[in-house]
Specification:
Length: about 450
Amino acid sequence: MIRYRFSDFTLSRRRRLLLREGREVPLIPRYFDLLVLLVERRHEAVHRRDIFDCVWIDVIVSDSALSQAVRTLRRTLGDDSREPRFIRTVARHGYQFVFADVIEEQDDGVWPEAVAARAQPGTGEETRAGEPANGSAYEPLIDRLTRAGVNEDDRHEAAELLHALGTSDALSRLGSRPGHVFARALLRDARWDVAGAGKVPVLGAPAPLSVARELLRLRLRRAARIVARRWAGAAAGGGLAGLAAGAAGGLLLAAAPGSAATVAIAPVLAVIGGACGALGGAGVGAGLSLAEASARSQRAVALISGAALGGGGVGTAVQWLARWTLATLVGLNLDLGGGLEGIVIGAGAGAGYAIATRRAEGEMAAPRGRRRVHAALVTAVICGLAGLALTFAGRPLVGGTINAIANAADGSRATLAPLGRLIGEPDFGPVSSAIIAFGEGSLFGLGLAYGLMRRPRPDR
């Protein structure tokens, strides 16, 4: 491997280290990868799209994430955007590493200078570059962080600098002065962008509910457009999965021996399945997207809770609408499910998605190729198991509900008893119910996850 030396810095890909005069300068992994990319391709201006594809390969982030990364690199290198020595902004294109005297050498483990003790940012004893922190350095940054009317990007940069000086000292000096609520939320959010930053607790701090609300608003505002696209993708994926399941079930039912159904039932069940899948995908997808955009710590808990709440909300609405429709139009009063089923399937989708995308590092996962297929399959299996558990508890999904309505309505041809007889049951019994439920849950999870993780290609 090659390592690079420029000015008083050494950049080692093998050791994943940035050194300044032999002392490590901590960088979070994605920012390190960005610096390596810019140095490797220093003879050209790297397009923003290429940066996203190389550095944020399995996640999607807003454009501001790249701007923040470049600001952090400039501050780390001691660069100035107005008169850049290292990183130049190329308008409407991207960025270029412009330092002329870059030395390439074999990264064979022999270092030209001894590596000094590592800096310990976040302790209040050293800055990121290892220089003693001056107490007077905190006040201008805290003033910038708390003063109304200051650009949010400037306040975010002030929060990062405070983390570099020392998180605990910054929080102590911040106290409960005017503007501390938003400042605390911004410090909490910025700690993920500073290697070695200390913890910023919400519970136990002054005005915890207000801080949590500001933190949520901050993250959702930043990810609003991404969330909307992911929600729509999840709804489309769930709808297509339901459409396919309904059509396949209808064709199978029409072909089953002893069935009174004709092939005309396939488009009917396809429309029902597509509508249920799209509504379920919209609810679960919205919950997942909001949770993923707003939670960086306790990600799995947030995803499971968000998906369960979204699925439960849509399921409850569909449950009451279906009951009222049947009672009003055909006089059937059935105890249909929906709310509990939505919670369980949603929680299963959240759990599967959390397990399959656990390396997203607090960002919005968008794996590609085989990784995307793998993530969708994991989500599908866990959703299928959730559907199976509901069936064992006597809570049918769409297929079982259609069968119950058909059995209660005179002359209906949509009863699923012929499917049960295909596998040797006298009626639509527990085995056929379990097979249908697992298939429904799996297809829904597959479509939901695949649609949710669709990587948008906006113009950059």
